[in-house]
Write a structure and sequence with these properties.
The chain is α/β, with parallel strands linked by helices and about 220 residues long. The chain is built from 8 helices and 7 strands; from the N terminus they run H-H-H-E-H-E-H-E-H-E-H-E-H-E-E. The protein has one domain: 3-Layer(aba) Sandwich (Rossmann fold), CATH 3.40.50. About 40% of the residues are buried. The structure holds S-adenosyl-L-homocysteine, 3,4-dihydroxybenzoic acid (DHB) and magnesium ion (MG).
Length: about 220
């Protein structure tokens, strides 16, 4: 089984469970036009984030790592009318593309894009959030999750993207700083009694990766 099969199956299921979506299509087109890397979550993964947020009735959502706001749109659409989402992005150009994508999708009133190093931005935020999605530079994942635990309510959910990296996560000698970052995070979460966590490995149009799903203990 290969990436080609994974992508074909992704497209098959996307055709069955995802509706046509001009705003999401336009966001991806604007990302490409703006030179952003194509490292957004996949459409099926985006909908999973959306459904998880809806399942817990999330009204305040925090995202670390905006890129062009593709995952942001999926998450923000799960919010009730009075809900809000804050998303942190280092790169001003990414943030600019994201703001335009969010405005096109009618979400500029509920989403705030905060530009700057996320570790600094996080220090200025007041919780509690119901759900936090961690998806920025992987080297700092341990620090992002530490901050997220303080900002996410008891019973709330923390989701961490890209914790498998094509299987690279199990290589202690990997020269990839992202892998080293995820491994450092894995060691931290292993002894952390403040969260209950599991990991889902994923294949699909975005190749082989996975996410960690954690609930903050009451
Ligand atoms: N969540 C997005 C993808 C995010 S890609 C989606 O699925 O659609 C990771 C993003 O994190 C990039 O835009 C990158 O610029 C940003 N990033 C990298 N380092 C960062 C930092 N220190 N603080 C905030 N954002 C950062
Ligand atoms: C990378 C980052 C991501 O958030 C992702 O989903 C895939 C790849 C990266 O930095 O390579
Ligand atoms: Mg990611």
């Amino acid at each position: 089984m290969t990436d080609a099969t994974w992508s074909t199956v992704d497209a098959y299921w996307a055709a069955h469970v995802l509706a046509p979506d001009p705003d999401l299509d336009a966001a991806l087109a604007a990302n490409t036009a703006g030179g952003l890397p194509p490292i957004d979550v996949s459409p099926l993964q985006g909908k999973l984030l959306h459904l998880l947020a809806r399942s817990i009735g999330a009204s305040r959502i925090l995202e670390i790592g905006t890129l062009g706001g593709y995952s942001t749109i999926w998450l923000a659409r799960a919010l009730p009318p009075e809900g809000a989402l804050i998303t942190c992005e280092l790169d001003p150009h990414h943030a600019e593309v994201a703001r335009a994508n969010l405005a096109r999708a009618g979400l500029d009133g509920v989403v705030e894009v905060r530009v700057g190093p996320a570790l600094q931005t996080l220090q200025t935020l007041t919780g509690p959030f119901d759900l936090t999605f961690v998806d920025a530079d992987k080297a700092s994942t341990a620090e992002y999750v530490e901050a997220a635990i303080g900002l996410t309510r008891p019973g709330g959910v923390i989701i961490v993207d890209n914790v498998v990296r094509g299987g690279g996560v199990v290589d202690p000698t990997s020269p990839d700083r992202a892998v080293a970052g995820i491994r450092r995070f894995a060691d931290a979460v292993a002894g952390d009694r403040r969260v209950d966590a599991t990991v889902i490995q994923t294949v699909g149009g975005k190749s082989y990766d996975g996410f960690l799903y954690a609930v903050v203990r009451p």
